[in-house]
């Protein structure tokens, strides 16, 4: 539809270089979708090569850990890594070619600095995507990592209203947490000034209170710059491809530690997606909490303030904190993938009482924050429990979060239904702060055993099974 309007002469109020980027993104949407399907089919249907969350494959046995490679048989019972281009030539060639063509157009035909930044980015992106190695370099993990780091360094200089996002996440679609997924989306900045102001307040609070609490820890010192240097982008997705079933409400990039330590991160907040998901959260919430008091607490939540600007933005701002390449090696990729979402939540939830004590928030904000998170946990049971892709959210968000709420008495069963007890809000945040300190300490010490002990707390207990049964009747019992 967008392409038809562009071909008919529509410019949507955009500059020529912005139209050119939009046009190419739309043209490649189908190609990225086909590539994403083929990539997922390859990884999911060949656990003997790529492994699963429970069993090792040849990737783990042979140390085949190039994020930007696929695994092919090389003789009898032997395997090697090859570029995306070799495994999916048709799609990768078309994607790389069109971005190169656009790059040439932007670099040669437009003096706009945003156009030049985009042109340089797409040139490097296209070469890395097709693994077009510089002279004298071979295709291997180290060289590909460096190519993509160069891409990200240039991407951090793309600061205009058009934001291409090739996130290359590796913890969602590859259950072993190794392979980068070749998705792409094009986002435009939007005017959300009130939300942006509130997000800045959240950022300042995290810098202040996390610094007071964890300033002496090396793991905080090593990642603090990512928080200090973050640039916040309220966006709307115009073109969304490849991932198919997974559109982020918030995302912090790049993922590479070497880049975000040097340049910081971009934090993308899509309020439109967050508002839609909150509507779904409310529907699921009402299946579990049916009393008037809980309904009143639910209605007190302001999705823009309590959800987008505080909980969601705080989560994204906390994403790179307390996580380094060394910690991933010490604790393990799979463990870190499951810890990541919980830790990001804790980075904001763990300072909420500090913000109240400092007069930045009041006690109602504590309760609203908890109720917003509760709705998010319940929605994740509804959408993420049976999805391999969403396991980091289900385990990190839903199970760990509900554990804290049940253990604190903030939520409790009353007869056949569940209720909220706001009087236990302090206990909830005490447990929250304890969990945050626990993760920071075992990350600081590189203690994999303690990390695994913590992850083992994320269980479907009898109480959580009862909540699941409210949301999805018949999951654990037979109904006539």
Number of helices, counting only DSSP H or I runs of 4 residues or more: 23
User: Could you give the distance between the termini?
Assistant: 47 Å
Radius of gyration: 23 Å
Helical content band: 55-70%
Number of strands: 9
In round numbers, the mean pLDDT is 91
Topology of this protein?
Blueprint: H1 2-7, H2 16-45, H3 47-50, H4 58-61, E1 69-73, E2 79-83, H5 84-87, H6 89-109, H7 113-129, H8 141-155, E3 162-165, E4 184-189, H9 193-214, H10 218-221, H11 224-228, E5 231-241, E6 250-253, H12 257-263, E7 266-269, H13 271-288, H14 292-299, H15 303-318, H16 325-331, H17 333-349, H18 352-357, H19 363-384, H20 391-408, E8 411-414, E9 417-420, H21 425-445, H22 448-455, H23 462-471
Helix pairs in contact: 2-6, 6-7, 7-8, 9-15, 13-15, 13-19, 15-17, 15-19, 16-17, 17-20, 17-21, 19-20, 20-21, 21-22
Structure notes:
The chain has 480 residues and is α+β, with helices and mostly antiparallel strands. The chain has helices at 2-7, 16-45, 47-50, 58-61, 84-87, 89-109, 113-129, 141-155, 193-214, 218-221, 224-228, 257-263, 271-288, 292-299, 303-318, 325-331, 333-349, 352-357, 363-384, 391-408, 425-445, 448-455, 462-471; strands spanning 69-73, 79-83, 162-165, 184-189, 231-241, 250-253, 266-269, 411-414, 417-420. A five-stranded mixed beta sheet has the order 3-4-5-7-6, with helices on both faces. Strands 1-2 form a two-stranded antiparallel sheet. A hairpin with a 5-residue loop joins strand 1 (69-73) and strand 2. The longest helix has 30 residues, at 16-45. It is globular, with a radius of gyration of 23 Å.
């Amino acid at each position: 539809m967008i392409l038809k309007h562009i071909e008919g002469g529509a410019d949507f109020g955009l500059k020529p270089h912005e139209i050119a980027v939009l046009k190419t993104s739309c043209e490649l949407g189908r190609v990225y979708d086909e590539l994403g399907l083929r990539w997922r089919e390859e990884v999911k249907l060949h656990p003997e090569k790529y492994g699963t969350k429970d069993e090792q494959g040849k990737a783990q046995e042979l140390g085949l850990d190039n994020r930007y490679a696929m695994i092919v048989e090389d003789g009898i019972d032997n395997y090697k890594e090859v570029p995306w281009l070799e495994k999916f030539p048709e799609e990768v060639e078309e994607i790389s070619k069109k971005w190169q063509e656009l790059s040439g157009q932007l670099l040669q035909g437009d003096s706009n600095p945003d156009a030049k930044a985009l042109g340089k980015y797409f040139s490097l992106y296209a070469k890395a995507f097709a693994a077009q190695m510089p002279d004298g370099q071979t295709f291997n993990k180290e060289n590909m990592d460096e190519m993509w780091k160069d891409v990200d360094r240039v991407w951090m200089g793309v600061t205009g209203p058009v934001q291409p996002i090739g996130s290359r996440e590796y913890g969602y679609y590859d259950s072993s947490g190794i392979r980068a997924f070749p998705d792409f989306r094009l986002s435009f900045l939007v005017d959300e000034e009130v939300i942006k102001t509130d997000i800045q307040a959240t950022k300042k609070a995290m810098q202040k209170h996390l610094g007071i609490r964890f300033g002496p820890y090396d793991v905080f010192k090593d990642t603090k710059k990512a928080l200090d240097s973050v640039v916040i982008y309220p966006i709307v997705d115009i073109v969304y491809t490849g991932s198919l079933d997974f559109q982020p409400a918030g995302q912090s990039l790049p993922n590479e530690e070497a880049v975000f330590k040097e340049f910081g991160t971009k934090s993308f907040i899509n309020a439109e997606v967050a508002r839609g998901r909150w509507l779904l959260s409310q529907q699921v919430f009402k299946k579990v909490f049916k009393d008037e008091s809980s309904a009143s607490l639910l209605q007190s939540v302001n999705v823009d303030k309590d959800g987008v600007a505080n909980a969601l933005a705080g989560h994204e701002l906390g994403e790179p904190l307390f996580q380094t390449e060394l910690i991933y090696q010490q604790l393990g990729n799979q463990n870190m993938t499951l810890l990541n979402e919980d830790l990001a939540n804790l980075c904001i939830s763990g300072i909420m009482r500090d913000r109240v004590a400092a007069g930045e928030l009041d006690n109602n904000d504590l309760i609203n924050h908890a109720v917003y998170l509760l709705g998010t946990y319940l929605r994740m049971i509804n959408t993420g429990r049976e999805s391999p892709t969403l396991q980091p959210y289900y385990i990190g968000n839903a199970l760990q979060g509900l554990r804290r709420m049940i253990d604190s008495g903030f939520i409790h069963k009353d007869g056949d239904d569940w209720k909220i007890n706001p009087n236990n809000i302090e206990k909830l945040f005490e447990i929250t702060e304890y969990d945050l300190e626990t993760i920071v300490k075992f990350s600081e010490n590189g203690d994999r055993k303690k990390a695994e002990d913590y992850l083992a707390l994320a269980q479907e207990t009898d109480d959580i099974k009862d909540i699941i049964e409210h949301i999805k009747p018949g999951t654990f019992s037979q109904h006539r």
